[in-house]
From TrEMBL:
Highest classification ranks of the organism: Bacteria, Bacillati, Actinomycetota, Actinomycetes, Micromonosporales
InterPro entries: DUF2993
Pfam family, one: LmeA
Name of the protein in question: DUF2993 domain-containing protein
Organism (species): Micromonospora craterilacus
C-alpha cells in the first residue's frame, strides 16, 4: 500500500515542478522585456534631449543640457504606434541669447502630452516630433526681480497671495519704509508687467507733495518683466506669487519640440 501511494504522488510532484519552472521562465522573460523597454526609453530620451537642445538654441534661448523623461509603459508599444503619452523636459538656467536685463528662469519644467514621433524620425533625427499640448512652469526668484527694480534696500515677497514690496524711501527729508502690493498684468503676447498702485508709508507727511512723491516712487518700480524668449512657442497664461518666487505658467498647442532635419 505504501508503494502505491508513493507512485500516485510522483506525477503530481513532477507536474508542480513543471508549473513552477514555467512561472520562473515567464518572470525571467518579463524582467528581460522590462529591461529592454527601459534601455530603449533611455536611448529615446537621449535622442530627444539632443534635439530639444538644438531647438532651444534655434529659438534664441540658452539653458543647461535638457533633462528628458519619456513617460508611459510599455515604451516599445508607444514606439511602434508613433505616439507617446507624455514627455517631461526640464531646462535649467533658461536665459535669452542676448542677456541684457532679461530675468533668468532657474528652471523650466515642460510637460508635453500626446507626442507624435515616428520610428524613422527617432532613428534618423529627421522629421518633426510634435506635441499636441505643451505646458511649462518656471519660477522667477524675488532676488532677481528686486535686482531688476534696482532700488537699494528694496525687497519683494509673497503676502496673502499678492506680490508684496518693502523699501526705504526719502520723502520730504524723512526716511520712511514703504510697503504695499503689486498687480501682475499679463499682456496679449504673454508679457508680464508689475503695477505698484497700492503703496503706503507709516508716518507719511500729510502734505499733498508727500503723496505725490510716494506715487512717483510707485510708478518708478512699476515695470515690465523682461523674460527670456520661452522655447516651444510657450505663451505665459498665469503668474502667481508663491513663497519661493513668482510662478509662471505657460502653454502652447501643436508644437514641434525638436528642430526638424
Amino acid at each position: 500500500m505504501d508503494h502505491e501511494y508513493t507512485d500516485e504522488r510522483r506525477p503530481r510532484r513532477r507536474g508542480r515542478k513543471v508549473l513552477i519552472g514555467f512561472a520562473v521562465l515567464l518572470l525571467v522573460l518579463a524582467g528581460l522585456l522590462a529591461i529592454a523597454d527601459r534601455v530603449a526609453a533611455s536611448v529615446a530620451e537621449r535622442t530627444i534631449a539632443d534635439e530639444v537642445r538644438k531647438q532651444v538654441v534655434q529659438q534664441g534661448a540658452q539653458s543647461s543640457p535638457p533633462e528628458v523623461e519619456v513617460g508611459g509603459f510599455p515604451f516599445l508599444t508607444q514606439v511602434l504606434d508613433g505616439r507617446y503619452e507624455r514627455i517631461s523636459i526640464r531646462l535649467r538656467d533658461v536665459r535669452g541669447s542676448v542677456q541684457g536685463d532679461a530675468v533668468a528662469l532657474p528652471s523650466l519644467d515642460v510637460d508635453a502630452r500626446n507626442v507624435r514621433a515616428s520610428l524613422d524620425t527617432l532613428r534618423s533625427g529627421r522629421g518633426e516630433v510634435v506635441a499636441e499640448t505643451v505646458n511649462g512652469t518656471g519660477t522667477i526668484s524675488y532676488q532677481s526681480l528686486a535686482a531688476l527694480l534696482d532700488r537699494e534696500g528694496l525687497t519683494l515677497g509673497e503676502r496673502d497671495g499678492k506680490l508684496a514690496v518693502t523699501a526705504p524711501v526719502d520723502i520730504l527729508g524723512q526716511r520712511l519704509t514703504v510697503t504695499g502690493t503689486a498687480d501682475i498684468v499679463i499682456g496679449e503676447q504673454g508679457q508680464i508687467s508689475l503695477r505698484f498702485d497700492n503703496l503706503d508709508a507709516e508716518g507719511l507727511p500729510t502734505a499733498p507733495l508727500a503723496r505725490t512723491l510716494l506715487n512717483n516712487f510707485a510708478r518708478s518700480i512699476s515695470v515690465a518683466v523682461p523674460l527670456p524668449e520661452l522655447p516651444f512657442q510657450l505663451t505665459v497664461r498665469e503668474v502667481l506669487p508663491k513663497p519661493e518666487g513668482l510662478t509662471v505658467t505657460a502653454d502652447a498647442r501643436d508644437v514641434p519640440i525638436n528642430s526638424a532635419g
